[in-house]
Amino acid sequence: MPLQLTHHQSAADLQQARRCLMDAGDVPLGLVDDTLRQSWLRSRHAGLSPVDVATEPPLCSTTDLRHTLASEHDLLAHARPVMSFVFDQMRDSGNVVVLADSQGLLLDSLGDTDFATRAERVSLRPGALWHEHDRGTNAIGTALAEQRAVVIHGAEHYLARNSFLTCAAAPVLTSEGRLRGVIDISGDHRGHHPHTFALVRSAARMIEDRLFHARHGHDQVLRLHAHAEGLGAVGEGLVALSDDGWVVGSNQLAREWLNLPTVGGGTLSDLTGLRVAQMPPGRTLRLQTSRGQPLFARLDWPRRPVIQAAASPMPPIQARARDTRPTPTPNPGIPQPSTSPLALDPRLADAHSRAQRVQAQGIPVLIQGESGTGKEVFARALHTEGRRAARPFVALNCAALPETLIEAELFGYVGGAFTGARREGAPGRIREAEGGTLFLDEIGDMPLALQARLLRVLQDKMVVPLGGNKAHPVDFVLVCATHRNLRDAVRTGQFREDLYYRLNGLTLTLPALRERQDFDTLVGHMLEQICRDMARTSVPTVHPGLHQAMAEHRWPGNLRQLHSLLRTACALLEPGEVAIDWRHLPEDMVQELQDGQRTPAPSDAAHHDDRASLASPPVAALAPASLADANLRRLSHQAIQQVIAATQGNMSEAARRLGISRNTLYRRLKQAPD
Known about the structure:
CATH architecture of the largest domain: 2-Layer Sandwich
Shape: globular
Oligomer: single chain
CATH topology of the largest domain: Beta-Lactamase
Strand content: 5-15%
CATH class of the largest domain: Alpha Beta
């Protein structure tokens, strides 16, 4: 049951309890809620003084925050849309919505300006540490300690300086039941609203469900709800199943309804008596739990995914079961992606197949390729398709950390090993990957001294944390990635030769986007994914001229650049717009695409209708064949004039269609060629 203290503690009881704590070091039983009492005692045991205003609130360094934000990319990506939704429900009410990681480090916040300013005075902002050991009893820290939703109101905060707050927080759990973070709503204690508690719990469930679907896009999913109409909506129970029926993940509602353990531990039939094998995919059935609770259920089989953008978590490359869901409406703006794995670039498909075979034998894989080609995405796909899919996938970017932090981050450390170390120490990324996959990105940037330590771990399958003397056995498969040529680094003495031969059990080179043969498929799947993230009800088309220019572009940023461009374009679509055009692109990208576009053949003109040509396609597409070699500035001016004519001289609308400001538009007109 969730802990809610707001209506249990009177001001007089809290004042007496605090006096007893200060005088005798304890709080009499029954004076306040026992959970609050235990939290206060934990805070006192951590050495905190309730009235000490001289102590600086603990903050992490800018480097540590940057590293944590990078490592928590997927949590942030799935939490931020929910935070925006929650904030919209309570805008101008004097509140702030906060996201923290599993250690109480604040990652992001969103709030009304007036209260956010007050909140910053007690460091209720990204980079601050709000674990109970750091801030005493507070909603974020106490939710972490109790691993359930809490409300901490006014003087219930252990530190007197935080008593102006009223805070409701709920933990965010993974589909394996592990603590992933905390979502919190804080405001002035005088403006407390009881509905805040329900809102923050709902927000936590929404984030958990988004994480669930990102994690289990390749698994069968059993959906449960008390009403048939609730299947596929917020508030449904979710159970992820492997091909052979094993439970590999679930959300809190499903665990509660079906009495499931936090981690699988068996098939659904063994754990609940439900026989999923007898359920036809896509059909809604009525069933009864072991407790007699009636539920509606539907079994959804996974879609056949294709490697997408490097910017988001990936489902596996090959589907495990036939997709029985309805085919989405075709998008006429671009060729439709095939659901077959053969739709992938042949080089990529061959690399994936080879990597799967060697990784199944525990052989390390070394992935090479330019920045943005999807090396981490490829590694995640290997993991989710492998035998260790139910175990952790742990990633560390060796280039994102200073040399002084890589050792502690990778190998872990004992408490007090160095200045600024956490009291309880840290296990390190290697031990966090126990049973799963360790992905070391930019391995070529690892310092030589740490290369020797890593080599020892790979040889002995044991790791000794920094500052400790006890070796811990480890079991993981290793995938490394780099954009550097490690052979050259070995020759120049920048990389250990013995480690190189330990890492490159199989070396793969991912093709750059300009070399791939599945550009149309990638664009289609990226747009589908982006629209899901943005909660768009339909996938936009792409203007044919723009699509051609994109297909011919060299994409120095590869998949990452393409994904970023499409995401920006989708964000700039007006309500009701169904096509991405040149006006939806950043100005610098329009110029870059136009500069690199090949001159179209005369026959291409037949594929451009009048409406599309007025919507600012590339200037080369507007020009007749006889002007193909004309000055680019003259053609650009011609395109601008056509858009102005199409908008009947409305300069604001013309600037919007062109994707530039009005000032830029007027400047371009003044620069018209003679």
